[in-house]
Amino acid sequence: MGTKDDEYDYLFKVVLIGDSGVGKSNLLSRFTRNEFNLESKSTIGVEFATRSIQVDGKTIKAQIWDTAGQERYRAITSAYYRGAVGALLVYDIAKHLTYENVERWLKELRDHADNNIVIMLVGNKSDLRHLRAVPTDEAKAFAEKNNLSFIETSALDSTNVETAFQNILTEIYKIVSQKQIRDSPDDENSPSNNVQTITVAPTDNSADKKQKCC
Ligand code: GDP
Ligand code: MG
């Protein structure tokens, strides 16, 4: 039975990646629940959280996945990336090493994610001005060179958090809706046929098995 919450035109899976401690879980809680935690609770992680936004008169339901601390052990499974159409690659503007490791995360995406995944480089903790270790211009140039969009955010004071998610979801929407127009035959081009769901495969093995057997 559908509730209003289940009514959407598009469902996009977006993954959060980046070193431990850069603020991924807090970006997620800020965007989906408007909450922030000073303490890092890396072991108590949700698998994903959702929030719907409007883009171009369409309801986009974002299903945003959090690593739940797996990145500490470099143990992110390929299931995490499966079906993802977007990635927020987060570093901490006050910790240079987390920026240096962006290259590694890009490689991880190349190895595990869809080739067409939309990637946004996110310099989080922009409130820590006095501790800045990564110049904005340098990160911006790196992003341009690697074809990524770029933004600086603060999950603590909320700066640019909405904008970051809004921008990546809009970017994905533009690509998906363009592709739909190209792919659909003329007679199927009416607005009523304009609904497309990006499906997300189950992550755990038991669910995988269930799906295969039934
Ligand atoms: P994760 O390991 O990437 O999920 O990072 P967390 O979201 O758990 O955050 C790690 C630590 O950084 C926590 O102590 C947070 O309170 C803090 N933190 C997260 N985002 C921000 C931010 O935008 N500004 C500041 N100053 N601290 C933040
Ligand atoms: Mg976390």
From TrEMBL:
<dbReference type="GO" id="GO:0055038">
    <property type="term" value="C:recycling endosome membrane"/>
</dbReference>
<dbReference type="InterPro" id="IPR050209">
    <property type="entry name" value="Rab_GTPases_membrane_traffic"/>
</dbReference>
<keyword id="KW-0636">Prenylation</keyword>
<protein>
    <recommendedName>
        <fullName>Ras-related protein Rab-11A</fullName>
    </recommendedName>
</protein>
<dbReference type="GO" id="GO:0003924">
    <property type="term" value="F:GTPase activity"/>
</dbReference>
<keyword id="KW-0342">GTP-binding</keyword>
<dbReference type="InterPro" id="IPR027417">
    <property type="entry name" value="P-loop_NTPase"/>
</dbReference>
<dbReference type="Pfam" id="PF00071">
    <property type="entry name" value="Ras"/>
</dbReference>
<dbReference type="InterPro" id="IPR005225">
    <property type="entry name" value="Small_GTP-bd"/>
</dbReference>
<keyword id="KW-0449">Lipoprotein</keyword>
<feature type="compositionally biased region" description="Polar residues">
    <location>
        <begin position="190"/>
        <end position="205"/>
    </location>
</feature>
<feature type="region of interest" description="Disordered">
    <location>
        <begin position="182"/>
        <end position="214"/>
    </location>
</feature>
<keyword id="KW-0472">Membrane</keyword>
<keyword id="KW-0547">Nucleotide-binding</keyword>
<dbReference type="InterPro" id="IPR001806">
    <property type="entry name" value="Small_GTPase"/>
</dbReference>
<comment type="similarity">
    <text>Belongs to the small GTPase superfamily. Rab family.</text>
</comment>
<dbReference type="GO" id="GO:0005525">
    <property type="term" value="F:GTP binding"/>
</dbReference>
